[in-house]
Specification:
Structural class: alpha+beta
Strand content: 25-35%
Shape: globular
Radius of gyration: 14 Å
Number of strands: 8
Largest sheet: 6 strands, mixed
Number of helices: 2
Order of helices and strands: EEEEEEEEHH
Length: 133
């Protein structure tokens, strides 16, 4: 699992986003086993690659079809990608399909959801490019 985002939330929590390197770079949002966002003190940092197990969160609803449950204590840090923007540009393209990854294929995204996701991906990639210059 490659961690690509970490956003501060209220109540001392963070929203952690990643790409599953074993599942064709499928996007995921890592949640604690109880379904809550990770605590701000989580060990997951942008650019880290982790060996971890996860399971799809129950009762997912748009826009968070990518939610997965992770036990941070069972995760093992493998490496840190130094040039994250370059790494992602080589492996990730803007999503234009009408479905999410295979594990959530029963959910279909409408046009506005796809456009929003594309805008987020583009904005994230632009931010990464700026930080690497």
């Amino acid at each position: 699992m490659l961690i690509v985002s970490k956003t501060r939330m209220r109540d001392d929590h963070v929203c952690v986003g990643g790409h599953d390197l074993d599942e064709k770079m499928c996007s995921v949002r890592l949640l604690q086993p109880d379904g809550n966002n990770m605590p701000a003190s989580t060990r997951f940092e942008i650019g880290h690659v982790w060996d971890l197990d996860y399971q799809p969160a129950p009762n997912v609803r748009p826009p968070h079809l990518e939610d997965v449950l992770v036990d941070p204590n069972g995760a093992r840090h493998i490496e840190t990608i130094q040039s994250l923007g370059a790494f992602l540009r080589e492996r990730v393209s803007i999503w234009t399909e009408t479905r999410a990854c295979a594990r959530t294929s029963r959910y279909r995204a409408n046009r506005s959801q796809r456009e929003l996701l594309c805008a987020v991906v583009v904005r994230a990639n632009v931010s990464l490019m700026k930080t690497e210059q």
